[in-house]
Amino acid sequence: MTTTTPHLKRYQARFSQWAAQGRKAFIPFTLLGWPDKATSLEVVQTMIESGVTALELGFPFSDPASDGPVIQKAAMDALENGFTVQDGFDMLREIRRMDAKIPIGLLVYYNIILAQGIAPFFQAAAEAGVDAVLIADLPPECADEVYPIAQACDVELIFIVSPLTSSARLKTIERYAGGFLYVVSRLGITGTDEKTDTHLADLILRLKQETRLPVCVGFGISSPEQAAKMYQYGADGVITGSKIIQIVSEATGVDRKIVLTSFLQRMLNDQ
Amino acid sequence: MKSLGFFGEYGGVYVSEPLMPPLEELEEAFLHYSQDKAFLTELHDLLTHYAGRPTPLYHARNLSEAWGAQIYLKREDLLHGGAHKTNNALGQALLAKYMGKTRLIAETGAGQHGVATAMAGALFGMPTEVYMGAVDIARQQPNVYRMKLMGATVHSVETGSRTLKDAINDALRDWVANSRNTHYLLGTVAGPHPFPTMVKFFQKVIGEEAREQIQVRAGRLPDYVVACVGGGSNAMGIFNAFLQDDPTQLIGVEPAGQGLETEHHGAVLAKGSLGCLHGMKSLALQTGDGQILETYSIAAGLDYPMVGPEHAHLQAIGGARYESVTDEEALQAFGELARSEGIIPALESSHALAYAKKLAQEVPKETLILVNLSGRGDKDLLQVMALGENA
Question: CA-based diameter of chain B, in Å?
Fold first, then answer.
């Protein structure tokens, strides 16, 4: 296990730096190994070059029950193209070499972790340069299985908060949560959708009062306009996933980099 | 939550945050109404007058003669709807009504649970939507039509392996979006707590009846209780009453498909490893990387890469043992019951029968073997006809 020396964790450093500059965080998501390893690395490189706040990267899983159709299909495609967990860690290592400072979050389903063993998984993640892990199907009630190991490896855990999360649940989540709070903007699955929950403003307001962590909103945030609304509500940042998969699916070759860069720039600059 | 629903190291509540509040609400309602006299009286009334409980216990004399042990069949095939699934569907739909939910969703494999949910939806006047894998829709057309006749909407699930596991994924996605007004009527003793405990509660009537009936009919407890296991609800339903009876051995029968040595089976307890899917920790058929494998069985209702957590636990502590039979053995038992007793069993239940036959050949003739005949085979006729099996 990595020896822990007191230092400012990457998320903490990055969020306070951006907040000091009056900027909102923009965190793009993509699946590692999708559509293939080389393209996937190129997509992440484009994200880094565009100057995004942090990266949220997923390991493809056969049964992504928390994801919408776009990410489901991408996961299936990546697995059909031969993605392995070993590939995933190799890619993460390479991404860490591209940028020593950018916070890297890894999104996985719990089964992938159990298959490796919890300790070997977190050791591999730490060694590859991962700062935080979001386990899509691990609620705080069961987090004790993972938390001490993650801590020993100096990897934070990111947790989801939904419009249904009570203040009592939020307290439990806070005991384990690091990085930022990942707020799902609506109760649907991930995907690009123009509708946003009307209770969202109240939720973000409540979270800002009740938590010490930065509050970032994801699920269905696909345009600068939607992001601006979240910032108005008080969010510290947004996460965009399905839209990026869609952009990469629809563009090819040199075009892909141009189209993706332009989207990322708009999300970063039209605040 | 009041409990995390662990059975040893299996079970638990492994879902994304948006599902936790609806599960807390469901647990609270279940704990309350499962003790509530009005609720239990209404359920008992439905089970008796609508569904036809108690179901008979039948001593299959011809089969006993042919196989060499005393075979008793618990006739869940005679329950309204044609399978044990009705017990659970009525129980949960009634609970949903008491909770003020106005819409039901369900997953289905063979279609029996979808049919049972569609029945309950019609009965309680609740719009019902059933998720069913495209592969299962193709092989279970009669059940798809039955669901539609009773007013349910059937969604064809085109993702993943397009079978039961993918139908559960889609039902969970629906529930996340609609939990405020919708009850997810999960069909087996799997999924996140409180489902395994709750479904067992609604299915345990099978064993309670059978335990009493066999003592009246045969004068003693059975030596063996045999039931097929996919998710495991009919098995849990009949096992539960005998768990404390030392002399009675409990045997769950999994689908060996084309053989345990091939990749084409669904024998999770035999071949699976610790995994987490559909909100629970249990055994799973998966790759070394933790990707869930596609399973195979001639019986759509057994075609599932996980198993109810309590079965994984019972196997671990030796409370029950688990065997498997192939498609071919199940098909043979299917034909033998039809010819010798005039009863056409479901292909799922045929797995339990096929193992009972093997067992009968190894034990003294007076041995009592209680088989849970969990469903009838009408739904399987087109599939069996297509295989060219003749009577």
Answer: 56
Going by pLDDT thresholds of 50, 70 and 90, the confidence category of residue B207 is very high
- Burial class of residue B391, CB neighbours in 10 A (0-12, 13-18, 19+): exposed
Least Cα separation, residue A49 to chain B (angstroms): 31
In the block, residue with structure tokens 């209702």: B301
* The amino acid at A61: F
B20 and A139: CB-CB below 8 Å?
Answer: yes
Does the global pTM surpass 0.90? yes
Q: CB–CB of B188/B219 below 8 Å?
A: no
Assembly ipTM: 0.95
Q: CA-CA distance, B318 to B320, in Å (whole number)?
A: 5
Domains and CATH numbers, chain A: 22-269 (3.20.20.70)
Q: Could you give the CA distance from residue A237 to residue A223 in angstroms, rounded to a whole number?
A: 13
- Residue A161 C-alpha, separation from nearest chain B C-alpha, in angstroms: 6
Residue A43: phi, psi to the nearest 5? -65, -45
> A145 forms bridges with which residues in the sheet?
none
Tens digit of each residue's pLDDT (9 = 90 or more) over A153-165: 999 999 999 988 9
Residue (of B98, B126, B121) closest to B41 by Cα position: B98
Q: How far is CA B170 from CA A186, B13, B96, B179, B187, in A?
A: 17, 18, 20, 14, 14
CB-count exposure of residue B362 (10 Å: 0-12, 13-18, 19+):
exposed
Of A182-191, B193-202, B258-267, least confident by mean pLDDT is A182-191
Residue B179, chain A, CB below 8 Å: the answer is yes
Q: Does residue B366 sit at the A interface (CB-CB below 8 Å)?
A: no
Q: Is B158's Cβ below 8 Å from some Cβ in A?
A: no
- B184: β partners: B105
A159-171 exposure pattern, b = at least 16 Cβ within 10 A, e = fewer: bbbbbbbeeebbe
B107 is catalytic: yes
Residue A192, pLDDT > 70, answer no
